[in-house]
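Reopening this one. Same input as before:
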Amino acid sequence: MPFEFPERVSLAHLPTPIERLERLEKVFEGPEIWVKRDDLTGIGKTGNKVRKLEFLCAAAQRETAEVLITCGGIQSNHARATAVAASKLGMKSHLVLRDSTGGDVDGNLFIDRLVGAEVTFITPQEYEHRDEIMARVADDWTAKGHRPYVIPEGGSNALGALGYVVAMEELAKQLKQMKLEFDHMVCAVGSGGTLAGLIMGQWLYDVKTALHGINVCDTAEYFQERISGVLRDARKFFGLQMNVAKKDIHVIDGYVGKGYALSRQEEIDLIKLVARVEGLFLDPVYTGKAMYGLLEETRKGRFKKGERVLFWHTGGIFGLFPKRSLFF
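Same output, byte for byte:
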């Protein structure tokens, strides 16, 4: 029996295309490299986060919410997409952002301000208690007579992850139409929801491709635990009777580099290279690190000549602008 998705609002421009990166293949000297262009889901709502927000915003509407509250780093793609989606749907937004200085109004933060998001800046230490802080923000809005809806970091809960179940269904149809198969799929992992949804989608739509996440923060073990929690909740709330052991959640560690949203020169150089040989814009927080991991793992022999790899481009172009001084 086909899986019945909960109601969702239409925010993303779908389906996103699949393209081959033939010139980049020559640089990597390994497998065929293809890209799923989820950076093209929209403009202000660009990237992977908008797929998750289709379900999360529908839930907010069902609860007659007037304010969307979420959190992230100062250059959070998810926070920006939430703020833009809120404006699109006639809601307010309140973002809790990790930054002790108040941040330059650039990149994603500029878009946040442009669409009228209210922003609360907190320190990295306070961010460890982000859920409690968002709950207090929600209480403040309630006290002012508004109905809030809190969306977790990255939209990465069982409901949000359904956005990438839909994405895997979309991919399965495209592969059939294009008569195309992949040996591997690779995506960046920053909060776990995208990889969790892809795992669920593989199970539902019988996509046999080996699926790898490359974490851009924390550790493989952290994300195996977090994603396992999302999958448990999916079984509980949506009746998805899949059993995925932690060891079968493949997260390739070793490419966090200097830390979350901190860039090494090798990563910057690769972002420049991809832009110049393919006209494709990676970002320094997620896809730049993940593509660098793909390159290094190719050199180590994980991805081989004769194989075909699909890279999920999850967006993030606005994150380039605050890092401009690193590029030239």
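So the earlier flakiness isn't reproducible anymore. For the record, The longest helix spans residues 158-178.
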